[in-house]
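Action item from last meeting closed. Structure (400 res):
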């Protein structure tokens, strides 16, 4: 039986291990953390990723435990709708809606699909030999026919395989995330854009709401003195890096959100007020601006953020990692074919996501008004125009 060693117990790594196991591989997942407790945030699973999860028997359970994204769209900071879409239109066009759930829920579902004993928590990988497949850990060496590097945006494996690649760059924005109790009154999913800032609202199941926000990055004095400082190594699996904690102006993360978004449309101020200070996550967003020359070398395959870390603006970071995983398993370790199948697609999405990130940073009043006018025009043309922008992303289907 062929053996795969997966480095990293995030969404991409767990999906890869589950998918390879279903293809008859024995798998070992090495996760340096002592538990699989993910960050306390929500996640959107788009139709393309739902179809991928169906191949490992998780899709229906994800649908069952999720909230379906209903009417949603883009709004201005004052609450004006710029464009909208409906779940019915998305379902008719893509065969599935986008569903919303806690990251913890998805991680638990994926971990439940692993064979007994496959997951090794608290295991740090120190070196990988791409030629032999030997993986050196603090618990001893592992021999693998395939090594899956799902070790995040600051991937040490990627750095060793492609030392000439420039690595992650700062996107220019800081992000905040929080899960809060759903307030009284009507609440619709939306993403609101103001001058240089974004606030997103995602209703979840069980009376919860996932909120996220971005604004131009606040740099520490050290950052301003050395703007090329690389991201901290304690990196999350969504392309973000922990910032220096307390906001630059004092008052904590909740106070910073209130100052930035407190005069935006309802229910944004109420959602900020409902957030608990110690559960607000604040991170600078990094991404890979330059694509890699390949997603493999020798017996090693790169997956997820290790291969194509992108800004979160298209909601495709985890979705593309899930796609990677099921394609890699389907190809049974044929790594040149894996690169051929995944490099072009993920590069396109990575670039589009970064372009949207740049659009959100526009703060000049004339530019903001022009942006809103263009969005309003698209909104008046109906659901079809809006959904067509995601046609090539959401209509992807896993190989059979």
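Sequence:
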């Amino acid at each position: 039986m062929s053996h795969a060693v997966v480095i990293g117990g995030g969404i991409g790594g767990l999906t890869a291990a589950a998918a390879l196991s279903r293809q008859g591989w024995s798998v070992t997942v090495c996760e340096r953390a002592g538990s699989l407790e993910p960050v306390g945030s929500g996640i959107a699973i788009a139709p393309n990723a739902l179809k991928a999860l169906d191949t490992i028997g998780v899709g229906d359970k994800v649908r069952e435990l999720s909230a379906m994204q209903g009417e949603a769209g883009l709004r201005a900071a004052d609450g004006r709708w710029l464009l909208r879409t409906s779940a019915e239109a998305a379902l008719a066009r893509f065969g599935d809606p986008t569903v919303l759930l806690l990251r913890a829920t998805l991680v638990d579902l994926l971990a439940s699909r692993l064979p007994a004993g496959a997951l090794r928590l608290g295991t740090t990988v120190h070196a990988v030999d791409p030629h032999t497949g030997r993986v050196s850990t603090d618990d001893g060496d592992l021999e693998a026919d395939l090594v899956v590097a799902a070790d995040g945006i600051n991937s040490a494996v990627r750095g060793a395989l492609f030392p000439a690649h420039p690595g992650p760059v700062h996107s220019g924005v800081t992000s905040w995330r929080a899960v809060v109790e759903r307030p009284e009154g009507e609440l619709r999913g939306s993403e609101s854009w103001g001058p240089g800032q974004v606030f997103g609202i995602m209703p979840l199941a069980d009376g919860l709401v996932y909120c996220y926000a971005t604004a131009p990055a606040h740099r520490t004095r050290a950052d301003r003195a050395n703007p090329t400082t690389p991201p901290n190594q304690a990196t999350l699996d969504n392309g973000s890096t922990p910032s220096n904690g307390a906001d630059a102006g004092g008052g904590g993360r909740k106070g910073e959100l209130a100052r930035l978004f407190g005069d935006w449309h309802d229910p944004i101020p109420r959602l900020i007020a409902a957030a608990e200070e110690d559960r607000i996550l604040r991170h600078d967003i990094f991404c890979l601006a330059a694509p890699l020359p390949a997603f493999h070398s020798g017996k090693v395959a790169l997956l997820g953020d290790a291969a194509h870390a992108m800004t979160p603006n298209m909601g495709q970071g985890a979705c593309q990692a899930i796609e990677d995983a099921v394609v890699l398993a389907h190809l049974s370790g044929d790594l040149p074919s894996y690169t051929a199948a995944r490099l072009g697609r993920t590069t396109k999405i990575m670039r589009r996501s970064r372009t949207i990130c740049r659009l959100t940073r526009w703060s000049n009043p004339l530019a903001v008004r022009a942006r809103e006018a263009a969005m309003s025009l698209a909104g008046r043309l109906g659901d079809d125009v809006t959904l067509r922008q995601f046609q090539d992303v959401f209509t992807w289907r896993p190989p059979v």
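Note appended to the action item: Residues 335-360 form the longest helix (26 residues).
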